[in-house]
Amino acid sequence: MLKCIFYIALLIAIEVDASTLHLNTSSNPARLNPLIATDSASGEVSNFLFNALVKYDAGGQNIIGDLAQSYTRVSPTIIEFKLRRGVKWHDGKRFSAHDVVFTYNLITSPKIMSPYSTDFRVVKSVVARDDYTVRVTYTKPYFKALEIWMMGIVPKHILEKQTDIMGSSFNKKPIGTGPYILKKLEFSKQIELIANPAYFEHRPKIDTIIFHIIADPMTRFLMLKNGEIDVDGLDPMQYERQRGAGFDSRFAIVEQPSHSYTYLGFNLRLKKFQDPRVREALSLAIDRQELVDILFLNHGRVCTGPFLPGSRGFNENIKSPIQNLSKAKQLLKAAGYDYKHPLIFEIATSNSNAIRPYAAEILQRQLLHVGVKVTLKVMEWQAFLNTVVMPKKFDAVLLGWGLSLTPDPYMIWHSDGDTPGGFNMVGYHSQKTDTLIEKMENSTNPDTVAQFQRDIFAQIVHDNPYLFLVIPNSINVYNRDIKNIKPTINGIWEKYIDWEKK
């Protein structure tokens, strides 16, 4: 009898102590493999499942160890990583230097198609000197020699015998070293993660994370207000006019400039966008400040180029174009377009972002003022990615980029990025930009790198492969029942394994 009472009490205690963090994502993840996770949903979930060798500290200024206990710059072209001992994969197997070597060999092999492989183009060799020491030799000094190892490491013992990595079951049933383990993946419903009891820092204090897959922004917002979601981002309209009574007493709000921008990108493989006069005309026809005012209600700013304000590569001498309808019409006329023979094209975007369909409508109206006829295509994210973006079947796309604190322009802006699966989706080719990027990458002096970045910034803006539009603020809200959240320059997710929920 006493034993029975004991077990009942134990079960009640477990139930009381159990905690679940409810999150959401707007689409199904395509592949939960960090080497090929190119969509936002895959990236969000994968971050809980995998670790990299290194990461940024809370201040975003210094690089510290993650799977690596420490690192040493042996020479300008050699870095040696000392790995943590005792780290285990989710299936209990031991993590070692051989997994790091395997990850490098895989991402640079023809077995996978990944834009991240370009990060490793200056790596000469990756060698396991013993089970816990990895030596990386580069072909030349490289300004992002450490940052490229912020990519998730994958398990050799699971993937080494698989021939079809892109179609592997691992992409839906991943095994990582991260603080959470994938328990359940139900497409178009939810994703359940459970705390990793053997995580090398310590077991996360929140037992379960559930991602609710919800495409409709209004549904997500209603679930947040009803307490069915604990952490989310608000768009400016929700923040200003829809929070309602009692919202602020239940949710804390953290507003910061986002590390992202929204852009309109032209398919430069199409003849109509190859004329620089057309791209300049479209730029002059747009009132970017109106986008900020209408869409973001002043919770954002006009974007002037590919690197964000506050970064060393930001070129403060480049100003945003001021709307000039008269000059835009002149340029279009010179390129062979007028009201009788209008420029016609389609803007494609996704409804996974609540703002972008409305942004597309505003751009459509603004461009009509100079006689440009725009049609719109708004799609579910996965369909948009698979049928429009990746096969490059578009006239123009309205999208956004999230940037790291030390962005590498190579993947997006170098001609080499115009490959299947590459991030140079618009087909931008510029010998001047390529040369500047290559010179920048050969330097390890921070001041020299920053100057090259500012020059790259100016050249890209001059060429108009994108129209840089807005930098939105990030408005994050979280349930006040969650404790130990400490916002940093990196957002609110620093040390989330220490979060506790009542």
Short précis:
With 502 residues, the chain is an alpha+beta fold. Helices cover 29% and strands 24% of the residues.
Give structural notes.
It is built from 16 helices and 20 strands. The chain is an alpha+beta fold. Strands 11, 12, 13, 14, 15, 16, 17 and 18 form an 8-stranded mixed beta sheet that branches. Strands 1-10-9-8 form a 4-stranded mixed beta sheet, covered by helices on one side. It has a 4-stranded antiparallel beta sheet with strand order 4-5-7-6, covered by helices on one side. A hairpin with a 6-residue loop joins strand 2 and strand 3.
Q: What is the fold-level CATH name, i.e. the topology of the largest domain? A: Dipeptide-binding Protein, domain 3
Q: Class of the largest domain, according to the CATH hierarchy?
A: Alpha Beta
Task: Give the name of the CATH superfamily of the largest domain.
Answer: Dipeptide-binding Protein, Domain 3
Proportion in β-strands: 15-25%
Shape: globular
Helical percentage: 25-40%
Any low-confidence stretches, pLDDT <50, length ≥5?
1-17
Lay out the secondary structure.
Layout: H1 2-17, E1 20-25, H2 40-49, E2 54-56, E3 63-65, E4 68-75, E5 78-83, H3 97-107, E6 123-130, E7 133-138, H4 156-159, E8 180-186, E9 190-195, E10 208-213, H5 217-225, E11 231-233, H6 236-241, H7 247-250, E12 251-257, E13 260-266, H8 271-274, H9 276-285, H10 288-296, E14 300-302, H11 325-334, E15 344-350, H12 356-368, E16 373-379, H13 381-389, E17 396-402, H14 410-413, H15 431-441, H16 446-463, E18 466-479, E19 482-483, E20 500-501
Parallel strand pairs: 1-10, 15-16, 15-17
Antiparallel strand pairs: 2-3, 4-5, 5-7, 6-7, 8-9, 9-10, 11-18, 12-18, 13-17, 13-18, 14-18, 19-20
Helix pairs in contact: 9-11, 15-16
